[in-house]
């Protein structure tokens, strides 16, 4: 008799909580399209009116304290689902991401609190704390910066003291807010942990209620400025401040003036990690999973074509499969015997030398500091590892130049953004026949590089994109008077060629190195160890 009663209560809960709630949400949506219901509109008639955030005076705010939320205020995106998906995919696994996607129809009918709890459980249950920290540091900032609301950020930046209150898990936003937006304190929902793992459950204090947390944090003192969304809860939140401003939906998502341009980023975005190259909204994520089987087969086909067929056939079939290859500039004649040409390339993916060799329709040798065994095996060109011993590496490169043309990427590592890392000067001492090559790669779905993931999968992820693009511009040979033979030092030559390539691509030159990138993204120096050494 007990089982039917339990089943009856469960059915009653579903009907009351889910169906009733979905009907209410549907009514609210119908109301939003112009059909008004008295019992719904009566709730919004007595809301306090706050001016738009665009009306806020930015002068004289240095000594003032500002409070706001990141969701629907600092970020233009109306849903936090994409950021949970980024954590699930990049910090968890593709299976966790699929489970989160399959839950999206259920999430649509849940209210905000239950939706947040479900997404938190699926995303964090069994997730390593270390993986979350890596994702927060190396993956999420890019997507947060690209979705910042310019007007809200300008008000935030004008204040001297900043505190963010949010109901989303604190671990998802705290690193970005403190590192990039100089926020002093972040008060958010706390998650339970067991050892080095998240349980997926919210701590005993529950989801953060912003107006209560504000009172607990400030006591009787009122913050100077509050920014919120147009929701009822946010009106209550910012009503506790001396001044209140709201970010309306039309000012956030659809207004071009609210888009944050790259040159106004609070901190340059040079390094980031992760495989996803798009903001994974439910529809975009569904498209990715539908494309995945096709993409895997297409990647295998493209790799086999490049490895097994001659250059011209490989290029033709590759273009027919969707690869976009733009080549411009002058192609030099084949080098003299015992005297090869040194090609200096910008480094966007591991495939840079391969695409250059295919474009020139001639065999090249590429030198690299670290590359996986799998990448070496499937490479259609010869690859030679360097040892980081300057004298030995110099002798190796001179020997290879006597055998034929050589490709060098002096940055030593890839960079996805429009920046060039510092060029190593070793190449400038090796040859006087130097040809700079400006290379850039564009993808729409997956990045073909990683700092903390499996490097052996880099070529597969690049070729899994529907239409991966490679732009190759072969510049004129560097005049001898601008080389070491002309009296320049190797450092001057390296900096000169870096500027040439930066100007050709419209990229900014930096003094950052490979070590800077890997220490920031992966916490190591990015050296792929040999199997023999790893056993010692």
UniProtKB/TrEMBL annotation:
Annotated Gene Ontology cellular component terms: membrane
Membrane topology: Multi-pass membrane protein
Location within or outside the cell: Membrane
Name this protein carries in UniProt: Phospholipid/glycerol acyltransferase domain-containing protein
Phospholipid/glycerol acyltransferase domain mapped to chain residues: 341-442
Family classification: Belongs to the GPAT/DAPAT family.
GO biological process, one term: cutin biosynthetic process
Lineage of the organism: Eukaryota, Viridiplantae, Streptophyta, Embryophyta, Tracheophyta
Residues of the signal peptide: 1-20
InterPro entries xrefs: HAD_RAM2/GPAT1-8 (IPR056462), Plipid/glycerol_acylTrfase (IPR002123)
GO molecular function: glycerol-3-phosphate 2-O-acyltransferase activity; phosphatase activity
């Amino acid at each position: 008799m007990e089982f039917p009663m339990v089943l009856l209560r469960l059915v009653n809960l579903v009907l009351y909580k889910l169906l009733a709630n979905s009907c209410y949400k549907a009514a609210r949506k119908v109301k939003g399209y112009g059909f008004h219901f008295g019992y719904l509109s009566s709730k919004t008639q007595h809301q306090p009116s706050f001016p738009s955030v665009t009306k806020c005076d930015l002068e004289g705010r240095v000594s003032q304290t500002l409070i706001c939320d990141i969701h629907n205020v600092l970020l233009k995106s109306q849903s936090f689902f994409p950021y949970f998906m980024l954590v699930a995919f990049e910090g968890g696994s593709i299976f966790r991401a699929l489970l989160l996607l399959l839950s999206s129809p259920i999430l649509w009918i849940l209210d905000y609190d239950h939706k947040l709890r479900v997404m938190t459980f699926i995303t964090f249950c069994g997730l390593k704390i270390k993986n979350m920290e890596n994702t927060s540091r190396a993956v999420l900032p890019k997507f947060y910066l690209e979705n910042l609301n310019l007007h809200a950020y300008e008000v935030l930046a004008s204040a001297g003291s900043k505190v963010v209150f949010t109901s989303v898990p604190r671990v998802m936003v705290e690193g970005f807010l403190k590192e990039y937006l100089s926020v002093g304190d972040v008060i958010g929902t706390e998650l339970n942990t067991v050892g080095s793992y998240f349980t997926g459950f919210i701590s005993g204090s529950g989801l953060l209620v912003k107006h209560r947390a504000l009172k607990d944090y400030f006591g009787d003192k009122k913050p100077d400025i509050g920014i919120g969304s147009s929701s009822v809860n946010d009106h209550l939140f910012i009503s506790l401040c001396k001044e209140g401003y709201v970010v309306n939906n039309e000012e956030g998502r659809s207004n071009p003036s609210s888009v944050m341009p790259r040159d106004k980023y609070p901190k340059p975005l040079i390094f980031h990690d992760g495989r996803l190259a798009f903001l994974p909204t439910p529809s975009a994520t569904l498209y990715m999973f539908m494309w995945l089987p096709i993409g895997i087969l297409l990647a295998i086909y493209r790799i086999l074509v490049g490895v097994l067929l001659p250059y011209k056939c490989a290029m033709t079939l590759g273009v027919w499969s969707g690869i976009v290859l733009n080549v411009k500039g002058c192609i030099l004649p084949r080098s003299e015997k015992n005297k090869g040409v040194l090609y200096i390339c910008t480094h966007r993916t591991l495939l840079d030398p391969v695409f250059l060799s295919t474009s020139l329709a001639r065999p090249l040798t590429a030198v690299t500091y670290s590359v996986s065994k799998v990448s070496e095996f499937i490479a259609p060109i010869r690859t030679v590892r360097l040892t980081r011993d300057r004298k030995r590496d110099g002798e190796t490169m001179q020997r290879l130049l006597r055998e034929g043309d050589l490709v060098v990427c002096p940055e030593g590592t890839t960079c996805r953004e429009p920046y060039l890392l510092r060029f190593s000067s070793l190449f400038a001492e090796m040859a006087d026949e130097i040809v700079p090559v400006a290379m850039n790669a564009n993808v729409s779905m997956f990045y073909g590089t990683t700092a903390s993931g499996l490097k052996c999968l880099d070529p597969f992820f690049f070729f899994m994109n529907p239409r991966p693009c490679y732009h190759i511009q072969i510049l004129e040979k560097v005049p001898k008077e601008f080389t070491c033979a002309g009296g320049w030092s190797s450092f001057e030559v390296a900096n000169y060629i870096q500027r040439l390539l930066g100007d050709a691509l419209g990229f900014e030159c930096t003094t950052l190195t490979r070590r800077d990138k890997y220490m920031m993204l992966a916490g190591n120096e990015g050296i792929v160890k040999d199997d023999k050494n790893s056993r010692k």
